[in-house]
Structure formats: C-alpha cells, structure tokens
Amino acid sequence: MSSTTRPRRKVRERRDDVRHRVLRTAAEMMADGTPYTELPVQRIAERADVARSTFYLHFPDKSRLLIALAEEAVEGLFGEAVTWWRADHADGVEGVAHAMRQMIAAYREHRRVLAALSEVAGYDPDVAAFWRDRRRRFTDVVRERLDAEQRAGAVDPGMDVPTTAQVLTGMVEQAIQARCRHDEGPGDERVARSLARAIWLTVYGVPAPPP
Questions:
Q1: What pTM was computed for the model?
Q2: Residues 168, 202: contact at Cβ < 8 Å?
Q3: Domains and CATH numbers, the chain
Q4: Read out DSSP for 158-183?
C-alpha cells in the first residue's frame, strides 16, 4: 500500500465514523420521543461528540440529515415488495402477504423517521424530491411488472398500467402508514392479508389458486 493511500483511508474512515455517530445519535434521540423537527443541531452534535462545524461538513442542513436517516428506512420499507414484484408469483397471494408483513414491520421499525419524512416533505423541496424519487422508483418496478404481465396475456388487456401502478403504490403506502401510526401490532396480520388480497385481485382478477 502506498504512503498516500493510508492517510486517505484514515481520513475516509474518520469521516465515516463521524457520519455514523451523528446518524445514530439523531435516531436515538428520535427513539426517545423527540420529534425530528424539534431536534436542535447543537444538541445532536454534543451528544455525538462532534463539533457543530463538523456536523455541517457532513450535513449542510437538517434536510440532508433527514434524507440520510431515511435512506435505510425507505430501503427497508420497499425492499421486500420490490423482490415480490420481480419474482415469478408462483407462491400466489401468500407471497404478497409475506411482502406486506415485511413492509409493515419495516414501517414500525422506522416509524419516527418515516413519519418525519412524510411531514417534512410537505414543505421542504429537497426532502420532497427525495421522497418522490423513491416512490417513483418503486412505482416503476410495479409498472414494469404489470407491463410484462399484460404483454404475456396474464392480466386484463384493458388495464391502465401506469395508473394502476400508481394506485397500488399509494394504497399500500397509505394503508400501512395509517395502521402503524394509530394502531399497535396485533392486527398487522389482517392488514397484510387484506392488502395482499387487494393487490392480487387488482392484478390478476381472480383469487389465487391454493398451494
């Protein structure tokens, strides 16, 4: 390893460590009940043991901090559903139900960050652009699958694919958000199965065959 590579790696490691500490601290403060909008930068920096100026080197503003926090949360929210939309669907409605369970669990795990994301996106253009982009990416996955199924003759040829993809994305997002914000976990399985049935019937028009 060259003499110039080692110092660069150490600088990168220090930067990564600072970034991780700030994100972990902000997440812990939110988990303790502090709303994101009430998190002061100075307090985050103090608890993370970094200078305020160092905080701003990594996160020019709180919008960038929220976006960084939301990256993992959004990946967890959509990840399993993306896997299902790209699978062969041989497991029928049970495969959808599994994806919905994972989405609900991910929302509960990251509910404070996701709630802040939804709230701040209402007035912050950078956060709004991030959230629109992530939702668009997921909707594109749904649309691509519906397009493929329509070409294969597996779904109604009269289906308006782009609109259906948007409706399914919005339905799932809003149902899970409402469920996790206002209710505890005992009814999650019913919600997962109800969403799964609604998605399957919307796409294929008939109940899934028994396994």
A1: 0.86
A2: yes
A3: 1-60 (1.10.10.60), 61-211 (1.10.357.10)
A4: T--HHHHHHHHHHHHHHHHHHHHHH-
